[in-house]
User: Fold Hydrogenase from Bacteroides thetaiotaomicron.
Amino acid sequence: MITIKDKRECCGCSACASVCPKRCITMCEDNEGFLYPFVDTDICIECGLCENICPVIHTQPDEKKEQKAYLVQHKNAQVLRESTSGGAFTAIAKWVLDRGGMVCGAGFDADFEVVHQWADCYENLKKFRNSKYVQSRIGDTYRQTKQFLMEGRYVLFSGTPCQLEGLFSFLRKSYEKLVTVDVVCHACPSPLVYRKYLEVQKKKIGSEFTNVLFRDKYHGYKYSTMSIICRDTSIKYHEGIDTDVMMRAFFANMSVRPSCYQCAFKKRYRNTDFTIWDCFDVDKFSKKLDNDKGVTRILAHSDLANVILKESKSQLEVLEINPNKAVEGVKEMFYSVSVNPKRDAFFTDLNILDTETCFRKYFPITLRHRLEKQVRLWTVRLGLYKHMKKLFKAIMGSREIKR
Assistant:
């Protein structure tokens, strides 16, 4: 039976719970808010399936294969505005829906918890747009995916690399009508941190939320903004990586899952059809696409992926680029995040202290942070942000060399 002795060796994909023939494995939340398998030993028949299909135990090597790379931007202005980057996922999903298929991705439930869920019509794709910087609950979606495929329907399944590897391990065979999309993942933040963050924000804002946007384009594509949309439209919350606690915890690698510090799925050649991520430096490849509205960078790993993009050109601006250039400098694809030395203390305090007190302790909003926010916003408005970002990276790089 599956036994987690080291939490760094469990990505929480839920494949083990999904494959168990006796349904004796439950994904339970620990004190950091992450899910781990718990086995009811009274029911377990020790068939070994859970261990045999674990994608971390049986990590696949990064085997070179033919790839194509693209830059993509949706032609629909609303879809582009609502999407984190270029809106490619919406077009891929529409291709599946047009063939009577089902689309599975991460969306909010009624309480704004992030869960994997289904869409069977174009209008419902909106709930999948915009990144959710929280590890989602897979629930029964692996089993449901298999059922839809056995019925002969197309299925699009999207998620983080570990979630897609979990799906492949669970299915244990290929399906002609399965379309898969993984996102280049920095790391998976804690649902507990997110829940506590929402509690604090509800108390501060004092209005019912209607939406939460982790990567809103309120200040433009290049300035990551956390936006909370309220029932009372006179109340505005749009804070960036300098002044929003959730964003700061994420980019400080403070709130992420232990397995993310030694991620087993950081590689270029993947089993999915599509790997998608941002392209902030689109002007390095082309002046044709509007780099202020968002562009999706894509690695196409299969013939099916190339067919879907070709048949979706009525919705998309598509530019083919060199695959080696596409992945150049993309650290998130190849390297795990480093451990923040304050991480353990942060989670200990999160479970002991009042949440606001804890957040203030680890992520105080000082005058410096507020000034940094204004500097970032002005450089974005003046079109200088990318140049300042390059300069900052060059300075930090030279400091590392001197060390």
